[in-house]
Structure formats: C-alpha cells, structure tokens
TrEMBL record, chain A:
Belongs to the binding-protein-dependent transport system permease family. LivHM subfamily. The chain crosses the membrane at residues 12-31, 43-61, 81-101, 113-135, 155-182, 244-273, 285-306. It is found in: Cell membrane. This is High-affinity branched-chain amino acid transport system permease protein LivH. Keywords: Amino-acid transport, Cell inner membrane, Cell membrane, Membrane, Transmembrane, Transmembrane helix, Transport. InterPro entries: ABC_transp_permease (IPR001851), BCAA_transport_permease (IPR052157). The keyword Manganese does not apply. It comes from Halarchaeum acidiphilum MH1-52-1. It holds the Pfam family BPD_transp_2.
Automatic annotation (TrEMBL), chain B:
Pfam families: ABC_tran (PF00005). GO terms for molecular function: ATP binding; ATP hydrolysis activity; branched-chain amino acid transmembrane transporter activity. Belongs to the ABC transporter superfamily. SUPFAM superfamilies: P-loop containing nucleoside triphosphate hydrolases. Keywords: Amino-acid transport, ATP-binding, Nucleotide-binding, Transport. Residues 6-236 form the ABC transporter domain. This is Branched-chain amino acid transport ATP-binding protein LivF. InterPro entries: AAA+_ATPase, ABC_transporter-like_ATP-bd, ABC_transporter-like_CS, BCAA_Transport_ATP-bd_LivF, P-loop_NTPase. GO terms for biological process: L-amino acid transport. The keyword Transcription regulation does not apply. CDD domains: ABC_TM1139_LivF_branched. It comes from Halarchaeum acidiphilum MH1-52-1.
Length: 316, 236
C-alpha cells in the first residue's frame, strides 16, 4: 500500500510539471490555432534561464562563493530566496522568447496550422541549439541542498522531499492564479472571447494582437515554470523539455485541445498514470517503468475512444 | 440631402482572388435605417464586412463622417462609433450573457457597469439569464444578445446582418421593433435582411444588391411598390 502511495506522490510531482506545460500548450492552441512543437524547448529555456539567474542571484545575495549548503540567513538568501528569483526569471525569459518567436516567425508566415506547426519545429531546433551552445550537453542542477525525506510524511510511509512539496504547492498556486485571471479579470475574459471567436472579438473592440501576446507570455511563462520544476526534481539537460513534449501532447489531447481546464485534468491524469505504472508490478502485473509512456498513451487512446474530443470537449 | 455618416463609394472587395463587390455605392445618413436586400451570394454580408474593416477594400473608398476608414481594422472602427452584428456566430457561446456584454464594452473608457445596467433595463431577458452561457440561448434570445453586445459602445452607426434569420415571424417582428427603437435613440442603421418586406417596412431607404452592385435603390416604400423589384427580388 505505502509503495503505491509513494508512486502516487511521485505522480503528483510529475503531474505538476505536465500540468504547467499542458496549460500553456492548450492556451496557445486555443488562441493561435496551432500545436506548438517548440513548447517543450520553451520549458528548457525557462529551466536554463533560471539556472543562470540562480547562480547569479545567490552569488550576489551572499557575496560570492557557494553558501547554499550553509544555514542561517546566508543559506536562505543563497538558497530558497535565490530560487524564487530564479523561478521568476525563468518564467519571464520563457515568455519573452515565446513572444519573440511569434513576432519574428509565426506572425510573418501566411500559412496554415500545419505550416505553423512545422515552423515551430524549426523554432524548437534553434532554441535547443542556443541552449546547447551556451550551456553544453552535460547535466546540471540547481545548487540547492538536497534534503532527505521530510519527517512529517514518514508516518504515512512515504518519502516526500522539500522539493516535492515546492513543486506541488507552486503548481497549485500557479493554476489557481491562472483560474482567477481567466475567470475574474478583464484580460482573462478577453482571452476567452478571443479564443471563442476572433473576428467577433475584434468586432467588439478587443485588440486581439495584444491578447495573442499575453497568451504567449502566460502559456510560455507556465511552461518555463514547469521546466524549472522539472530541473528541480531531476536535473537539467538540453533535451529535458523536448523529451517531455509527447507526454504533454497526450495530456492536452486527453483533456481536449484548446481547453485550459481540460489540460489541467489531462496533465494530472497522465502524470499520475505515468508514475503509477511501476506500481502495477506490486500487484503482480509484470511491467516496469520503461513502459510508463506506452501505458499512459494507451489509456489516452482508450479515453479518446469514449470521448473523441477529450475530457473537456472544446470549450476553454 | 445632408452629408452621409457612412458612405461606400465604388467599393470593390472579396476573398482571396474571388471578387465579390464590383463597385458598390451606398450611403447612410445620420438618422436613417437603410436596408440591403438581394439574392443569396449578392455580396450583402461582404458589403458590411468591408465597411467595418473585417475585409480591406481592393479599391474605392469607405468614409465615416467624411473621413476615409477603408482598411482600418475593426477594433479601431469600433472606437470611431461603429457597431457590427454579424450574420452568424454573433455571440460568444462559451461566455455568459453578462460576459458577452462586458466584452462588447471593452473599448469604453471607464466602467461598463452602468451601460450593462441600461441594457438589462431595455432587455430584461438578458438580466434574467445573465449567468447562463450564451450557447444555451434560443435563436431569438441570441439575436437580442448579439444586438445588445453591439450596443454596449452606444454606437452612432450600427451594421446589422440579417437580424431576423431563422426566427419565428413574431420573434422577428420583436427584433425589428428593437432595431427601430435603437434608431429612434439616434443610431443610424445599415441592415441586411432576407425578410425583405419586413425589413423595408421599418426602413427609410433600401438598396437591392445583385452580383456585388446596386441594382436598385429608392425610398423603402417605393421599392416595395415597384413591380419589377417585387417580381425579381421580393418574391412577387
Ligand atoms: N469567407 C469567405 N471566403 C470565400 N468566399 C466567401 C466567403 N464568404 C462569402 N464568400 C462568397 O462571397 C459571395 C458573397 O457572399 P456574401 O456572404 O456577401 O453574400 P450575401 O449576399 O450575404 O448572401 P446571403 O444572403 O447568403 O447571406 C458568395 O459567393 C460567397 O460564396
Ligand atoms: Mg449574408
């Protein structure tokens, strides 16, 4: 039982990353109308921008040296506080890169959704190449101490680290913030209207170009956060985001492409299933983690057979 | 004749390579209701879309109060005091009624609350259904919402494409009464209507469009009495 619970915890952490990435992919699809294959690499860019910001900030805050392993104020400034700054930088840089790709590439192309999709593959290659040139192909990590399991969860028989808690809590906070933005602010209303019917949105006076920019910024910012959390719970490497892209697509399609709330649910479901696959062996099903993607995709296909437009249909 | 508030002068436009409007001349004065009628595919909707900036004129000019606005994007045309109710997909189905109205008012300076309240007074149905998604409305209710959304800016000129399409005759009549009431409050209206007789009945003047050109134009009453127009375009 506790083994299953452990897989579930791992699933929630993984889901957090998938959910953040899925929302952005679906949001951009809903307003821009194409599947953005550069989305995974946008995550990577966010993660690496945060890496740079993290070392810069911790050096600045504690006056050089690596004090992150230390305790006290220096430890806080060099560690968690610097990480918050780095997260923000990662999100902002991802947003800027996405807006730049819209301005420099997508908006210049008079082509179909398929043409834009192919263009986004090109954009993805460029982003990846830049990351590889700047940071090399080696694995890296945020220089934060890796604490052991938190004592509070020990009673439940599961190992939960501070990093796990950060990822899950921050994901929930970001998702909640997005919900408030979409439902209760003028920008959110205009985003939903633009996604519903762009011509009517323009006829109503919405400056849809600005809404498209805002959508890219929010979608890529969330992807950037997902990338940072992926780097936090595992390691950073230039293919980290791209390798996740298929799973993110599965989550988005499962939720109903174009639907933000569908992406949240799809991301959660796919993430948890993905990590629960190894748990099957404890129930006598001889299958291991290697097949997690396969099982997640099979379940996606099964759900789509029942609901062809995904869990949340078409609505945002 | 006074100066027109909206004028299309020799307008040509279309979609891609396909030309639809072949030198269209239409004028609308400040206190008028003008009705465009004509067969399917004549270019009536295309005329409204070109006037509103959803399509760019290939040649000719669109003038608002004497100023050229041809090719000005719709989000700017709205800010110049023009509203548009499209023929189809004219409400945001996934948004609530209240949200549709707020969206209609995004170009207003200051809040939209007072204007929403005014429109709720005028169309109590909308207040009653304000939290419902627009896609749950019936055809007639949807037409009222589409109309109210466009009125959020209190436009000087309103372009309406087939307000009575698909409505039962008495519901259509109510929509026409709403249109006439808005005109009484000082909004000039350029309306496309398939129910030509009902449309012309509330209009000052009418144009018959055929193949992207004006085939006839006259006072609405004269058009309805013209045996040739009646025979060719109004179904006898
Ligand atoms: N988005 C479009 N792309 C290409 N062609 C179009 C488009 N919309 C309309 N057309 C074509 O342009 C011509 C004029 O269409 P338009 O919609 O202006 O006609 P209409 O007079 O409004 O007709 P209806 O009474 O059916 O509404 C038609 O031949 C139509 O097929
Ligand atoms: Mg039409």
């Amino acid at each position: 039982m506790s083994a299953t619970l452990q897989y579930l915890v791992n699933g929630l952490v993984y889901s957090g990353v998938i959910v953040l990435a899925s929302i952005g992919l679906s949001l951009v699809y809903s307003i821009r109308g194409f599947a953005n294959f550069a989305h995974g690499d946008t995550m990577t860019v966010g993660a690496y921008a945060a890496l740079l910001a993290f070392s810069g900030t911790s050096a600045l805050l504690v006056g050089g040296g690596n004090a992150t392993a230390g305790g006290g104020l220096a430890g806080l400034l060099g560690g968690p506080a610097a990480f918050v700054v780095a997260l923000a930088v990662g999100m902002v840089v991802a947003a800027i890169v996405a807006i730049a790709s819209e301005r420099l590439v997508y908006s210049k192309l008079d082509t179909s959704a398929v043409g834009l999709l192919i263009a986004s593959i090109g954009v993805a290659f460029v982003m990846r190449a830049i990351v590889q040139i700047l940071f090399g192909n080696i694995q890296q990590a945020y220089a934060l101490p890796r604490s052991g399991p938190l004592p509070g969860f020990g009673a439940l028989g599961v190992a939960v680290t501070a990093r796990d808690v950060v990822v899950v809590v921050a994901t929930i906070a970001l998702v909640a913030a997005l919900h408030v933005l979409l439902q209760y602010t003028s920008l959110g209303r205009q985003m939903r209207a633009t996604s519903d019917n762009r011509d009517l949105a323009r006829a109503s006076g919405i400056r849809t170009n600005r809404i498209v920019d805002a959508t890219w910024a929010i979608g890529a910012g969330l992807a950037g956060a997902g990338g940072v959390f992926l780097g936090l719970s595992l390691r950073l490497q230039p293919l980290m985001g791209f390798n996740l892209l298929l799973v993110v697509f599965a989550a988005v399609i499962l939720g109903g492409i174009g639907s933000v709330y569908g992406a949240m649910i799809g991301g959660l479901v796919i993430g948890v299933i993905h990590e629960l696959v190894p748990a099957l062996s404890t129930y006598g099903v001889p299958i291991n983690a290697q097949y997690a993607n396969t099982v997640a995709f099979l379940i996606m296909v099964a759900i789509l057979l029942l609901r062809p437009r995904g869990i949340m249909g078409e609505a945002v | 004749m006074s100066d027109p508030v909206l004028e299309l002068d020799g307008v040509e436009s279309g979609y891609g390579d396909v030309q639809v409007l072949n030198g269209l001349d239409i004028r609308l004065e400040a206190d008028e209701i003008v009705c465009l009628v004509g067969p399917n595919g004549a270019g009536k909707s295309t005329a409204l879309k070109t006037a509103f900036g959803l399509l760019e004129p290939w040649s000719g000019s669109v003038r608002l109060r004497g100023e050229e606005i041809g090719g000005t994007p719709p989000e700017d045309v709205v800010r110049l005091g023009v509203g548009f109710v499209p023929q189809t997909e004219n409400v945001f189905g996934s948004l609530t009624i209240a949200e549709n109205l707020k969206i209609g008012g995004v170009s207003r300076d200051g809040g939209v609350g007072a204007r929403v309240e005014e429109l709720y007074e005028r169309f109590p149905l909308l207040r009653e259904k304000r939290t419902a998604k627009a896609r749950t409305l019936s055809g007639g209710q949807r037409q009222v919402l589409a109309f109210a959304r466009a009125l959020m800016t209190d436009p000087d000129v309103l372009l309406i494409d087939e307000p009575s399409a698909g409505l039962a005759p008495n519901t259509a009549q109510e929509v026409f009464e709403d249109v006439a009431a808005v005109n009484d409050l000082g909004t000039a209206i350029l309306m496309v209507e398939q129910n030509a007789r009902q449309g012309l009945a509330i209009s000052d003047r009418g144009y018959v469009l055929d193949q992207g050109r004006v085939a006839y134009h006259d006072d609405a009453a004269e058009l309805m009495d013209d045996p040739e127009v009646a025979e060719l375009y109004l179904g006898g």
